[in-house]
Write a structure and sequence with these properties.
The protein has eleven helices and three strands. With 281 residues, the chain is mainly alpha-helical. The protein is elongated, with a radius of gyration of 34 Å.
Length: 281
C-alpha cells in the first residue's frame, strides 16, 4: 500500500510541475527544464511532457508507476543481483533513459541564451546562440540587399530628374527655389513646434517642482507632452544630389548644409523628447 501511495504522490507532483512550468509555445527556461524537469522529475517523464512529447512522457511515467520505487536500480545493487531480471532491466532502462536526457540537457545549457525551444518535441537548433547569430547575419544580408535596392532606385530617380532638368522639362532655377521654400516652411514649423514642446515641458517642470498641481492638471499636461511629436525634415536629398551633379552652385551647397543641420537638430531634439515621454509612462 505504501509504495502505491508514494507512487501516486509523485504522479500528482509531476502533473503539478507540468501545469505550472510548461508553456504552450514550448519555450522553456533552460534551468527549469534541466534541473526541475529533467534532474528532479525526469524519471516521471516531466521533461518529455514539457517538450510536448505526451506519449513518451506517459511511457516514462509508467516505468515508475508499474515498477514503484524511485531508485530501484540502487535496490538492485544492494541486493547484489538478487532481483529478478525483468525488474532489473526496467531499472536499468529507467536509469539510462533518465541519465541520457539529463546529460543532453546539460550539454545544451551553454548553447542556448535563456530558453530551450522545442519544435514538435525536438530541439530547435535555430534558437541556439549559433543559430541566432546565423539568423541575424541572414537578416542583415537581406537588409543590405534592400538598402542596395533603395540606393539603386535613388540613383535611377536622380538620373531621371537630371534628364528632365537638362531637357528643359523642369526649370533648374525654379526647382532650386521650390526646394528652398520647402526647407523654409519646415524651419518655420520646426521652430513653432519646438517652442510648444519647451513650453509644455517647462510648465510641467515648474508645477512639479512647486507641487502646485492637482491630478487633473497632471493628467492633462502629461497627456499633451506624450502626444507631442516632431515631423522629420523633408526628404530632398535626391533632388539636391541631382542638382549638384548638373553644375556647381553655391545655392545648392547652402541648401545641403541647411538640411543636414536640420536633420542633426531633429535627431537630437526628437531623442530628448522621446526619453522625456518615456519617463512619464
Amino acid at each position: 500500500m505504501a509504495p502505491i501511495l508514494v507512487g501516486l504522490f509523485f504522479v500528482v507532483v509531476a502533473i503539478v510541475v507540468v501545469i505550472v512550468f510548461v508553456p504552450k509555445n514550448k519555450r522553456i527556461n533552460k534551468h527549469i527544464y534541466t534541473w526541475v524537469g529533467t534532474f528532479l522529475f525526469g524519471w516521471l517523464g516531466v521533461d518529455r511532457f514539457m517538450r510536448g512529447q505526451i506519449g513518451l512522457g506517459i511511457l516514462k511515467l509508467l516505468t515508475f508507476v508499474v515498477f514503484p520505487g524511485v531508485c530501484s536500480f540502487l535496490i538492485f545493487i544492494l541486493l547484489n543481483l538478487r532481483q529478478d531480471i525483468p525488474l532489473f532491466l526496467i531499472s536499468v532502462i529507467r536509469l539510462m533513459w533518465f541519465l541520457i536526457d539529463f546529460i543532453i540537457a546539460l550539454t545544451k545549457l551553454g548553447k542556448y541564451e535563456k530558453n530551450f525551444v522545442f519544435e514538435k518535441g525536438k530541439w530547435d537548433e535555430s534558437f541556439t546562440k549559433e543559430g541566432l547569430r546565423k539568423k541575424a547575419e541572414e537578416e542583415e544580408e537581406l537588409r543590405e540587399k534592400e538598402r542596395e535596392k533603395e540606393r539603386e532606385k535613388e540613383r535611377k530617380e536622380i538620373e531621371i530628374y537630371k534628364n528632365d532638368i537638362l531637357s528643359g522639362v523642369i526649370s533648374y532655377d525654379t526647382e532650386v527655389q521650390n526646394i528652398a521654400d520647402e526647407i523654409s516652411k519646415y524651419k518655420s514649423y520646426y521652430k513653432d513646434k519646438l517652442s510648444e514642446i519647451v513650453s509644455k515641458i517647462q510648465e510641467y517642470t515648474n508645477q512639479t517642482r512647486t507641487g502646485s498641481w492637482d491630478t487633473m492638471w497632471y493628467s492633462r499636461i502629461t497627456y499633451e507632452i506624450k502626444n507631442l511629436s516632431l515631423e522629420a525634415p523633408p526628404y530632398v536629398e535626391t533632388k539636391l544630389s541631382g542638382l549638384r551633379e548638373i553644375k556647381q552652385d553655391n545655392r545648392i551647397k547652402a541648401l545641403v548644409d541647411e538640411i543636414n543641420a536640420l536633420k542633426t537638430d531633429y535627431i537630437k531634439n526628437n531623442s530628448t523628447l522621446i526619453n522625456f515621454q518615456f519617463l512619464l509612462r
